[in-house]
Amino acid sequence: MQAWLCENPVGVDALVWKELPTPQPGPGQVLVRIHAASLNFPDLLIVQNKYQMKPDLPFVPGSEFAGVVEAVGEGVRNVAVGQNVACLAGTGGFGTHALAQAATCMPLPAGFPHVDAAAFIMIYATSHHALVDRAQLKAGETVLVLGAAGGVGTSAIQIAKAMGARVIAAASSEEKCALCRSLGADATINYSEHKPSGSLRDEIKKLTDGKGPDVIYDPVGGEFAEPAFRSIAWRGRYLVIGFAAGPIPSLPLNLALLKGASIVGVFWGGFSRQEPKASAAALAELAQWYAEGKIKPVIDSTMPMSELKAAYAHMGSRGVKGKLVLVNPGA
Ligand SMILES: NC(=O)c1ccc[n+]([C@@H]2O[C@H](COP(=O)([O-])OP(=O)(O)OC[C@H]3O[C@@H](n4cnc5c(N)ncnc54)[C@H](OP(=O)(O)O)[C@@H]3O)[C@@H](O)[C@H]2O)c1
């Protein structure tokens, strides 16, 4: 097998494409021949030693991938050799083969392409857990999605619309806002037009008749978190998804008191480990929504696996709309 190896986590430039021995699956594991792997924000952090999970060195990055099962270890019952699967393994995806825990693999129904499957679990499972479970979003409520044209952002728009909510999508360019409207967003805010961030509040107020959004989905953090939270509706739920902008914002707690609002942490990885049955049920519902055409990953572009470094650069410069997927030619 071949893979991008991280021997020294000092950044993308230090990754090397190497020939490695093909591993054999141990008990509960499967060996997957990778057809497609998507880039998620943690993949960017993990090769810089900036992610919460720090794998032993050397390791192959690539949290999420899809392909065909080539071998199964002892005790594996949920998948079989020859089956198409999507896997969220945390690492291993940026190569031709990877081991994964069978329990974390999603068997793919017919008609589920590898490219969509490789871009599915992380974003939709996160947004389902956030909006359905943590926010208890109801039809008719208004959701403000920040970073709305990114991976988790696009999935949040689609899930909120599937649940009958009104969506205001906020992103940093008109091009990104146009993508959000094409996904069903009812209104958009180009927040690069609202620097300093104070005028963002006026725009949110205008778009919600002064009431504010019931739910705010924030994967960005940074300078817009506080003005967004100041705009939230009575009994609003502010979903803490991530900090793509870098700095972790602080929010004045008196605002939560004044609005009767909740600041709600969302950690899908923890949820799937602590509550595996609820997590599996959510994934089954998402697979059903995919089959019904209610959700579909937005694929910015597919690139050959050999171009991983260019893919990382595209994501790091905020250029990606939806998901970037790397494919193994001829797999
Ligand atoms: N809590 C969980 O369980 C969970 C699960 C998955 C992901 N996450 C987190 O969610 C965040 C987004 O992940 P993603 O995979 O959707 O990433 P993504 O596709 O790169 O989207 C992130 C968005 O953040 C915005 N952004 C603002 N400042 C940025 C900066 N300095 N660098 C890069 N992007 C910036 C960009 O939108 P604009 O240009 O429009 O501002 C970009 O589209 C990450 O922090 C990730 O760790 C959390």
TrEMBL record:
Fetch the Pfam families from UniProt: ADH_N, ADH_zinc_N
Sequence ranges assigned to domain Enoyl reductase (ER) in this UniProt record = 11-326
Q: Where are the transmembrane segments?
A: none
Q: Which Gene3D superfamilies match?
A: Medium-chain alcohol dehydrogenases, catalytic domain, NAD(P)-binding Rossmann-like Domain
User: What InterPro entries does the record tag this protein with?
Assistant: ADH-like_C (IPR013149), ADH-like_N (IPR013154), ER (IPR020843), GroES-like_sf (IPR011032), NAD(P)-bd_dom_sf (IPR036291), Quin_OxRdtase/zeta-crystal_CS (IPR002364), Zn-ADH-like_protein (IPR051397)
**GO molecular function terms here?**
oxidoreductase activity; zinc ion binding
- Highest taxon of source: Bacteria
Q: What is this protein called?
A: NADPH2:quinone reductase
The organism of origin for this protein? Pseudorhodoferax soli
